[in-house]
Amino acid sequence: MINAKFITIGLVSTFLIKAQNMKYPETEKQNITDEYFGEKIPSPYKWLEDDQSPKTQKWVKEQNTVTFEYLNKIPYKSQLRDQLTKLWNYERVSAPFESGDYTYYFRNNGLQSQSVLYRKLTKGGPEEIFLDPNKFSEDGTSSLGEISFSKDGSLVAYQVSEGGSDWRKVVVWDTRTKKQIGETLNDVKFSNIAWKANEGFYYSSYDKPKEGSSLSGKTEHHKLYFHDIRESQFQDKIIFGGDEIPRRYINATITEDQRYLVITAANSTSGNELYIQDFKNSNKIIPVITGFSNTYNVVTTEGDWIYIQTNQDAPNQKLVKLHSSHIGNKILDLKIVIPEINSVLQVTTANKTLFAKYIVDVYTEVKQYDLSGKILHTIQLPGLGQATGFSGKNNQKEIYYSFTSYIYPSTIFKLNTETGKSEIYRKPIINFNPKDFESKQVFYASKDGTKIPMTLTYKKGLKLDGKNPTILYGYGGFEISLLPTFSVSNAVWLLNGGIYAVANLRGGGEYGRKWHDAGTQLNKKNVFEDFIAAGEYLISNNYTSSGYMALSGGSNGGLLVGAVMTIRPDLAKVALPAVGVLDMLRYHTFTAGAGWAYDYGTADDNKEMFEYLKSYSPVHNVKKGTCYPATLITTGDHDDRVVPSHSYKFAAELQAKQDCSNPVLIRIETRAGHGAGKPTDLILEETADKFSFALYNFGIRELK
After folding, report:
1. Is 326 a catalytic residue?
2. Catalytic residue among 555, 617, 645, 692
């Protein structure tokens, strides 16, 4: 067991004093402005948006040189790296799933860059490696995306991401021989794979951006294709979308009975249309629900009945069913199967039953229903935490789910769908004892009085002396819920005596659509106020103080950190914005950014929205003469979701205007994208850098 504590020396340190005289690479300022509603906004670092130019790449190299020179001098960085490596090195196995004659499961021996897909005959037999993503590339930076088997399990299509890019390749195999069938499909993005028998599959993509802007070029109209495995990709026909039905996000699934093609279409990350083709009765794709006011997702089918989860007139979601004879009717006869309650609902299916997973104050509760909506069982979980899974085929009596919390390593359970009883299937062997730690939920008041939940995790016996190194983490957007989950990285922070605090901010999905909407567009500042109030709660209750607190968040959470550190630069000593959306006036002009407008609005909408975005956009609110927290910005130069120029421009502004000795560094990973599929060695190195940067700037000189 790692047993460490911090030795502090206030803020007097030879190395920290040197930080006062840090010399950053020179970032050219150009006389460029953008005009919005008659107002000219300076954009001196706009040239950094050209992420493929030699000039930008030179800047990246120079910034990394300064950053790693600083990080590598922190005396205990390697010690933290060793701690992370040691704890990370345990076998992890996924919940198994069946396809054809085989049972498949992923396994990582501990430090492999990517988890390996194994299989064995369901009736019994030796295991074998089916697919090893570690062989996709020499450095482990190519990863496996979605994998989808045909109904009989004889064919599989899997996606490959290179360097963390959202652009994928698709490879088709014969599962018996593990030999490729046909050619590799290229340039597939934001897509699942929906098999139609063994003929082929549906997939989605965009027109590839022009050469030179492949990572940042705007993607507009999604197109749904059907790929016949006997044909070339060049012969694939557009089934839906494109210029005829312009939608930004289109995805297709085929129901387990192979009767229905289900298409969801959307222009933003909230709300979608629903289209269905009933192969039994029609050769046409028919609109079931148009417009983007609500969400509709088909969960399962049973004969002529289609089960749909929706938030129509139900902010916390409900499950309804629609008879296939009513497809295309102007007025839909949606019959309620599971009604809305006060907790947010998510429905999965197995063995022709329904599993209702509820979020109850950030924890999971699960109930099992039959297809008529009659309750069968309440699933007994090990405690307060997050349970995921509860999915299986219509004839599958035993299914699997995972349970985890901030101090409970993810454990797989087997569930008998007929009795509702669970048993442990696989428990990880890891050198971490949950009994040594406490994870508790508190509620605090935000600026407007709204009660916000926050989970605090730390070693038992913690002294409330205001000197505990603390990471305050948040997200607050896109109706995404931050539920308890075990993390080796966070475990190392805890083992060293730190506090890990997660605030469940408005904008997320923890309390349904109303909670989400309360943190969007002209309400977005509620999210920042919620986060600020979380920090103030930790300080006023002596868990920590400003000098020992780090703000952390990624993607939309990177925006959160960037906004809060510019609104309240005195709140925390350290800021760790990762792959953040930081230029709120131009975010919608890159890749799929325009699809985030439901949450943010855009500067082109109207003057009010422009003024609001300008008032908190991190890039535009760095002020000269201000002391900002010690900041380590992290991004990847292959990030084609939140393009790295957001981080580049924010770093340039901070470095030019910082008015104290707190360092401002940007760490640019040159072999990674937004984060998905990042290999283990890069995760370990980046985490060690973040932790050591935070601790050193808290004035902590050594670990023991």
Report:
1. no
2. 555
